[in-house]
Design goal:
522 residues; mainly alpha; Growth Hormone, Chain: A; 21 helices
């Protein structure tokens, strides 16, 4: 029996669930471009304001681990509605936060509410659609997960530029209320016998396992998000958090292996099929969120784009992703998922390779076209992982598997952002030191350039007393910009290698039954 009533159109359920999921994933990136505005409005530094992103990611990661338990105990519909209500209310509270501590508290609540929705969304869709239609249903869900991080910077940038940063959160209010009413009306719980069985499983709560896993994921998010800003292990704070993270991980493995009803089934994670899918999802999340954060920053800092135009660079790729989701949903019934993952990884790698050719005179469509190529590859990977990862998994493990795949996407995103930020920072220092070697005042090339630039400023009416100083400043700016562009190219080289690393993992996957390619294994 499906999770919906017979009279309810399953596509209506899919659209309502996808809408709620879209809002949640949107909030992983919408605040990024608004951070300078939040810092100014709250009277705090940008470094302090960046905790607005960190707290959301940490609470999001923590709740993912326990979502399957509450879904079984309370029922999927009830738990989903509670999560959506908490997310909507805390979003509005974020908009009306009176200082930074209150905003961080409401962001934690927002992350807790949002984190529980995504894995339960997949379980609801799996119960609503017959196996033959699940590929297309998950294409709609995939649009929310892949396109929302792309829309986030565009929407957040436009609102911050033209309205205020408060609207980045306030917009969730009316949309959330609409989704709440719609889901409450159309979604039905499973049959009574199935509900009792799920509740019986839900009563066995692995409290110690939850604390260890939540501590591990939460502290890992903090280390990844704060490491560069706090100078990594030169910071006592990062050292202490890393120690707690390592200890929680070391204690978690033997504890979870020895439990009959663990919070995370370590044996399932260690299987070739699910483990490989988890690693590919880590890489996919890393590339998606790293490029979504890094590309707008690049065009703003080095090409002078506004926050709105920086977001618009990503928009064509979002449209391509949306179309490719439905194409991939149909392909999954005809082509083995592992081959689609390989095709997607090659497309993503080529997109990253194109961006290694970045230089100062590039226009809008160079970045937009590279993003469109990325938009072709990501849906091929994302939906194929969804199809492959649940293959052979017992039905009572579906909620947990869904939570783990989504946790991998979030953790992968944090790893990707941290990796890109660190490569950028260190390679920029390297390139700047090498370029400065060729800009010595005693060198003929430097003197030649200085004379030409000085003549240019004189020809444009600048005061003679200032032109040489202006020329020196201009040369310094050029060195800085060139080092930034070269470092950006290095970031894209690294992301290209990450994408290519997914190919051997994909080829190790087992074939699946193409008529049953769905989140529920058979």
């Amino acid at each position: 029996m499906s999770a919906s009533g017979a009279a309810t159109n399953p596509w209506l359920i899919a659209m309502a669930v996808a809408l709620a999921t879209f809002m949640e994933v949107l909030d992983t990136t919408i605040a990024n471009v608004a951070l300078p505005y939040i810092a100014g409005g709250m009277g705090v530094s940008t470094d302090e304001a960046s905790w607005v992103v960190t707290t959301y990611l940490v609470s999001n990661a923590v709740i993912l681990t326990v979502s399957s338990f509450f879904a079984r105990l309370l029922g999927r519909k009830r738990f989903f509605l509670i999560c959506l209500a908490v997310f909507t209310a805390s979003s509005v509270l974020c908009a009306f936060a009176w200082n930074l501590p209150s905003l961080l508290l409401f962001r934690i609540l927002q992350g807790l509410g949002g984190g529980g929705m995504v894995p339960v969304s997949q379980s609801i869709l799996a119960g609503t659609f017959p196996p033959a239609k699940r590929g297309q249903a998950f294409a709609l869900f995939g649009v929310a997960v892949v396109v929302a991080p792309v829309v986030g910077p565009t929407l957040g940038g436009w609102m911050s530029d033209n309205l205020s940063w408060h609207w980045c959160f306030l917009i969730n209010g009316p949309v959330g209320l609409f989704a709440l009413g719609l889901i409450a009306l159309i979604l039905r719980e499973p049959e009574a016998a199935e509900r009792r069985r799920l509740q019986q499983q839900g009563r066995r709560f692995d409290l110690v396992g939850f604390v260890l896993i939540a501590t591990f994921l939460g502290t890992l998010e903090i280390v990844l998000d704060r490491g560069l800003e706090d100078d990594w292990f030169a910071s006592n704070f990062i050292v202490a958090v890393s120690a707690v993270c390592t200890l929680a991980f070391v204690l978690m493995i033997p504890w979870e292996i020895s439990r009959s009803n663990p919070m995370v089934d370590v044996r399932m994670v260690a299987t070739r099929q699910f483990g490989a899918c988890l690693l590919v999802m880590l890489a996919t999340g890393g590339i998606l969120l790293a490029t979504t954060q890094f590309l707008p920053e690049l065009v703003q800092l080095d090409f002078g784009y506004t926050a709105t135009w920086a977001g618009l660079v990503l928009s064509p790729g979002g449209l391509v992703s949306m179309a490719m989701m439905f194409v991939t949903g149909r392909l999954l019934g005809k082509v083995q998922p592992k081959y689609l993952i390989v095709a997607g990884a090659v497309s993503v790698a080529f997109s990253m390779y194109e961006l290694t050719n970045v230089y100062g005179d590039l226009g809008f469509w160079f970045f937009a076209q590279s993003r469109m190529l990325l938009g072709v590859g990501l849906p091929l990977i994302f939906l194929s992982i969804t199809a492959s990862s649940y293959n052979g998994i017992a039905s009572d493990k579906i909620d947990q598997a869904s939570a783990l795949i989504n946790a991998a996407r979030n953790i992968g995103g944090s790893i990707g952002i941290s990796l890109a930020s660190n490569v950028l920072a260190h390679r920029q220092q390297f390139h700047q030191s090498r370029l400065v070697e060729h800009a010595l005042p005693s060198s003929i090339q430097y003197q030649d350039t200085l004379r030409q630039v000085t003549r240019y400023f004189v020809a444009h009416g600048n005061p003679l007393a200032q032109v040489q100083q202006q020329a020196i400043i201009w040369i310094g700016q050029q060195v800085q910009m060139q080092s930034s562009l070269l470092a950006s190219a290095d970031v894209f080289w690294v992301l290209m290698l990450v994408s290519l690393a997914a190919i051997p993992l994909a080829l190790s996957l087992r074939p699946v039954k193409l008529d049953a390619t769905s989140p529920v294994g058979h």
